[in-house]
Amino acid sequence: MSTTILLIRHGETAWNAGRRLQGHIDIALNEAGLAQAGALGQALADEPLAAIIASDLQRAQQTAQAVADVKDLPVQTDSLLRERCYGAFEGLLYADIAARYPHEYAQWQSRQIDAVMPSGERQAESFRQFYARANGAIARWARQYDGQTIAIVAHGGVLECAYREAVGMTLDSPRDFQVKNASVNRFSYADGKLHLVHWGNIEHLSAPAMDELG
């Protein structure tokens, strides 16, 4: 049996727009993000969803709720679907991280997958640790709804982990693909393996589709 997974990045937040690192900080959608979530819900109205699952951070939950409202399904939450924890980097602009933590920033940008950022309010994760957490959570939900179709609303980093897993991309290679807000990314899960079907669908965010929401 193959499970179909619609893996979705949350809608835009003010911190996304301003290039401020969120990580585990719980930031809500901005006005644009709420509109994206509404368009997403309408776009998935005819999908035969058995479940809607979201990270427990509100930007993911708000996005998932827009789908749930259309499908009349509850949103199940899972903290293991959170974005990577970046420790002391969280809450800072990317430019400020580079200035304040030049060595650790360089490690991050050069994809040293076992490097860990300085701790802040929370303990940071290495990319390898995050990759195992995120893909383990996706696999667990896929097995729980074996043979059905589910929507999982998470974060850019989680989607990156799934993409790398599905196409066999090494963890330390540069990211040569985009992860867009409110994008729908279709995977299948069978025999313990994640497979990529379609990446980066944002047709529902086109001007005519958004205009239909009023």
TrEMBL record:
CDD domains: HP_PGM_like. InterPro entries: His_Pase_superF_clade-1, His_PPase_superfam, PG/BPGM_mutase_AS, PGM_Phosphatase. It holds the Pfam family His_Phos_1. PANTHER family: BROAD-SPECIFICITY PHOSPHATASE YOR283W-RELATED, GLUCOSYL-3-PHOSPHOGLYCERATE PHOSPHATASE. This is Histidine phosphatase family protein. The lineage of its organism: Bacteria, Pseudomonadati, Pseudomonadota, Betaproteobacteria, Burkholderiales.
